[in-house]
Write the structure tokens for this entry.
Amino acid sequence: MHRALSAIAVTLVTGTALLLAGCSSSPPQTAGQGPTTVRLLTHDSFVVSKALIEQLKHDTGITLEVSSAGDAGSMVAGAVLAAGSPSADVLFGVDNTLVSTAVDAGVFAPFTASDASALLPALQQDTSGGLVTPIDYGDVCINLDDSWFAEHRLARPTSLDQLTTPAYRNLLVVEDPATSSPGLAFLLATIARYGDGWQRYWQALERNGVQVSGSWTDAYESAFSAGSGTRPMVVSYATSPPAEIVYAGDPKPTRPSTSVLTDGCYRQVEYAGVLKGTADEAAAGTVVDWLLSAPVQADVPLSMFVFPARSGTPLPDVFTKFAAVVPNPSQLPATEVAANLRTWLADWGTVMGR
Amino acid sequence: MPALFLGVLLVAPLASVLRHAFDQPSGLDLGTTGGIAALAALQAAISTALALLIGLPIAGILATYRFRGRGLLQALATVPFVLPTVVIALAFRGLLGARIEPGLLLVILAHVYINLAVIVRIVGANWQQLDPRTALAARSLGASPLTAFRTITLPELKASITSAAAVVFVFCFSSLGVVLILGDSGTRTLESQILRQTSLLLDFPAAAVTALLQIAVVSAALLLGARASMTRTRFGAAARATPAPRPRSVRARVHVAVVATIALVILLLPLLSLASASLRSEHGWTLEWWRSVASIDAGTTRLGSPVEAIATSVRYALITGVIASVVGVLAAMSVLAHRLGRAIAVIALAPLGVSAATLGLGMMLTFGRPPLDLRATALLVPLAHSLVAVPLVIAVVLPSLRSGDARLVRAAASLGAAPTRAFLTAYGPILRVVMIAAGGLAACVSLGEFGAASFLARTDAPTVPVQIVRLLQRPGEASVGVASALAMLLVVGTLVLVSAVDALGRRR
């Protein structure tokens, strides 16, 4: 017993020593001189054409090093933990559900993009007080497997309300909002739509046999009937139908086999910002400017299947033809989301027995 | 030395997570957390029991008989352990279709499938060291095969079985990917709870408390395992002098055939469903996905070349194999030699209770910036993988080392050999076989690991699992098709690697 105790004591002492060592060794800041390397912290869904990174280097001398830190939630967690002494210079990919949390934690240094006036009018003021810059947006919507509905001679639903009716029993799969970003967006859409009555709506969905998946991949690829599953309705994106075409096998279909329920969509906006404490704020700002530049913005639709935030950016054909145009997507103020997220997720867990 | 390695690589990152944790408000509900822990323990116990039930007979025929396809079966048993969770989930969902909805049953099936490798490897490494003559003597004195197994072999194996069971229990108890993808409300683990708390709610204090609870449970399980593997066996078997025999009697042949067939079916079915996914499109059979493996998403930062990814994965796997087997064996030796052995064992095994994702986050915070910026070097990922693999190495090495004869060390020393020389004389032959087996297992851990790699791998140098997961994160037939093809490449790569390592181990 004494041996075990002394071992624990040794461990604790060693641990404390290491912890102290960690505290005292704050990173020395080196000023950027000559050719600069800027580190972009992002989530693992970030994609951009390599040619654009080379162009950035050619134009500004900046070598961009992209480091991904898991999914968007993990990335923000990492950024919040490192707020003030970041392991990167620029962050891209925090969205409107988490931006307020990151801003409150002091993750960002003030920066206004030089092309900020080129942003879509609706996004002009969406900068959390000059700390972040909108780069892209997209809508989370329920996707429908058209061929399934045709085969079963069932009318496709046109509103969220219909999903709780017997005709659509056992047909919907959603993602867990605690572990999936589209899942969270859909929960927020129902809260925006039904206000205080949102829990009643979810009780009705639960009674009507909604299935909850842990991830978008499982929901879309394994449970959705357009994947390998049986359910013809899934929470995904308004741009999933064009992606179905782009990533189809040859010969490419002329039109997607899925469509979008444009009622009950939630708008996600993704932002970039200069990380507070970076060694070279100017170079970091240049990278944010680059993300908002016309060439990168034109690359955004087919790289990440989202819409560019810069007005006047040309869209590829497959977008103009098949991406759903959502008339009135819901959006809750970022501060309201940050203030209530914990309660909402807990309440959702209670309603759904998770 | 091993203590320093583990200290710096494990304690510092965790400390840096904890250090940031306690200055924020928390919404922790201890009652819920306890309930989740109890359910997770039950799930892990069932998974472990089933994995033992299926894994022990496989380990048995692999260790006691020589037969055609033995090497392949042994390698095949390791494959599930290497596949990224999403791929396992995809394979199971493809195999079972929508017949089984996500829930406890699917989680347990997947856990058993993945952890067969742990049982087969850990118990197998020990089983091979047993002297078959003891059991044969019992047989010749009239004991039935079952009695001989129960009274002679089983007690000898108790240490490694306990050790393997403890490891499997810990894996299932702290499982994340399987639970997230294949689970439902009844199958949460503390680990998935930690993810919820950190990732969205940024509730670091609650996550820290949950993590401490998890480490407590895990350490308790490992302590039990380590304690069992510290007890000396009755016969103290030495390395076997003769190679395993072919099954001669009819009974032995039937035994091998039945077990091998069942094992093959269990191991192959999910892989076949994966193979078919890589060869099918809605137009029927196709080679399109295989053809586009090299070209998909060329020119963007999403994937990088799959050829390079394979090279990256193999490089990481080899480095991990070397680091983990050296550190693991040193740790196991100090466990045996030191009077604080048991405590060292638990500390060395503790990384099992910390998820790779938590570790990845911590390592990113600690080593991803000055003064110790390891990210530019290619070492960060293999180091994280080694940390996850060292406990497995110890679990493989310890039971076998313990069955080596300590008297030989003293004998060699009394004849004038230096301590190192004496140790090598006594343990050398066993050590070589066991280190190779353990290194192979560690390399496999690295090949399939996703959590830490997704944090630490540079975006332009992803590993194969990272590529697969990125592909599966978007719609379209091609995404699933090419991901399945890549997963099949991972399967083949594992088979080659494991067979090569096993062949090295057999050569004497």
Observations:
- The longest helix of chain A spans residues 2-24.
